[in-house]
Design brief:
This protein has 94 residues and is an all-alpha fold. The protein has one domain. It has 5 helices and no strands. The chain is globular and about 30 Å long. InterPro entries: CHP03643. This is TIGR03643 family protein.
Amino acid sequence: MRSSNAEQEMLPLKTKSSMRRKKLTEPSELSEEHASEVIEMALSDHVSFAEIELEYGLYEPQVKALMRDRLKPSSYRAWRKRVRKFSDRRAHYK
């Protein structure tokens, strides 16, 4: 039997979701380098909690706990205020 081009095109491609890292259960399992990357992503206004979950397997409450542990209290409060403001705006425009 000869395979057609259509069959060849249907081969599974490696996508970002198929190359996910293993799910972590605790932020304490992160290396220092990965913890820094998560903090950098969380501080960015352009990265959502869903993207952090895809990349590192950390859910929103785990990211918040990591941020609370690693940031100064005033920095954490300012970050939470900014994140809430973004989520409120996003919900309004949906």
